[in-house]
Amino acid sequence: MEQSNRIQSATRRTYVIVWVGLLMLTGVTVSVAGMDLGQLGVLVALTIAGVKSCLVFLYFMHLRYERGFFFKLIIPVTVLLLVLFIGMVFTDIAFR
Amino acid sequence: MEEHKDDVGSKIGMWIFLLSEVILFGGLFILYTAYRYKFRGDFHLAAMELNRILGTLNTVILLTSSLTMALSIASIRKDSRASSFGYLAATVFLGLLFLGNKYIEWSAKVGHGIYPNSPDLLGRSSGEVLFFGLYYAMTGLHGLHVLVGVGLLSVMCFFVVKGRIKKTDFILLENSGLYWHLVDIIWIFLFPLFYLMT
Predict the structure, then answer these.
(1) B64–A contact, CB cutoff 8 A
(2) Contact (Cβ atoms closer than 8 angstroms) between residue B42 and residue B131
(3) Would you call A8 an interface residue with chain B, using a CB distance cutoff of 8 Å?
(4) Domain map of chain A by residue range?
(5) What pLDDT digit, counting tens, does each position of A42-62 carry?
(6) CA A32 → CA A42, B33, B189, distances in Å?
(7) Which of A5, A17, B22, B122 gives a 20 to 30 Å CA spacing to B11?
């Protein structure tokens, strides 16, 4: 039982770097929103949000450091499937 | 009697719950997108009325609270309970700050006569009614999650002080952290959806 908590974890330095990255991406998405790119702006905003959530998943929720079938395969595949389903509904609505 | 403990099992259980939360909010995202395409002009007008500065501030607050949450777990791993408690208390404080901003934001909207079923709002076009309906429903549901998180983390603060969460057993803090980070991820998507895509 104690063994399970001994997985390697990110260092404080890594956490701070990830946090700075998240803040910078927030800055980018806010300034891009001011540029009025039309429908392309939606794509840019959602892509940046996707990158930000990947950072949170991998480092803050330390999916990157987890071991085993469930964490390495089931969770990423489930998240990707959800993204795919929601994304396909988006495209269906957009090109109807 | 020996206590049965399975940390990996409880973490897996937490993740399954979190994935169901993604489905819950995902459905609302789809609803938002569908109406956004149908009422593009109205959504554009309505989104311009939201306070982008408050929204950005709340994003920064929530991202920072995720950092303090992660640092709190890193501290307990190193057996420093005091700093773990400090970071956890900071996380709770930032969560409350987020809710305070939300309160200011919502009261300003209500003050302008924009709230569900208000005479002012019903006088507008149906796209704008839908936008503000979704705005209140989605940021409200998210705010509720933040409120639950603040409550949960306050209990964890107490557990850290009492020594129930310690270096050799911190799965409760770990799972609470996972929940808090997911609430952050949901906001990462809500923010551009309502405040930026005008």
Answers:
(1) yes
(2) yes
(3) no
(4) 1-65, 67-96
(5) 889 989 999 999 999 999 998
(6) 10, 20, 15
(7) A17
